[in-house]
Amino acid sequence: MLSPDRRMIMVTIVLAVASIGAYTATLFAERQADEPVIKMTVKRFEYAPREIRVKRGVPVVLEITSLDVPHGFNLPELKVRADVIPGQVTRVHLVPDRVGTFTFRCDIFCGTQHEDLDG
Asked: Domains in the chain, ordered, with CATH?
């Protein structure tokens, strides 16, 4: 087991199966101001929270804040990528289009243990 300072910077998004009608999906798409917001922080070698559960087809906004150095947010399975700069809130819009478990990682070198971040 890795010690806390050598943990992988990996967070898993678990997409729950949801039965959402076309009307509901359209309603969410038109009302972006009502999108649920999930606040996250990132610091060397750790995202918090480590797991996020969202529903397929329901748009959400991730508000990510770096607590130390520049980081990256990369979720290639859902084609989402963003830079996370200290002192700024990075807003990432996400509309999960399928069910599954997807891992996102930091993709900007953030320290000597960064190479341990790939799972």
From this structure: 4-117 (2.60.40.420)
Q: What is the pTM of this model?
A: 0.67
20 within 8 A of 55, measured Cβ to Cβ: yes
The single-letter code of the amino acid at 56 is R
- Give tens-digit pLDDT for 83-108: 999 999 999 999 999 999 988 888 98
Calpha distance 78→60 (Å, rounded): 13
Separation of alpha carbons 10 and 8, rounded Å: 5
Bridge partners of residue 38, in order along the sequence? 62
Q: How far is it, in rounded angstroms, from Cα 18 to Cα 54?
A: 9
Q: Would you place residue 32 in the very low, low, confident or very high pLDDT band (cuts 50, 70, 90)?
A: low
Residue among 36, 34, 43 nearest 64 (CA) = 43
Rounded Cα distance, 91 and 26, in Å:
21
Separation CA 54–CA 94 (nearest Å): 10
Tokens representing 87 are 């002192």
pLDDT of residue 33: 65
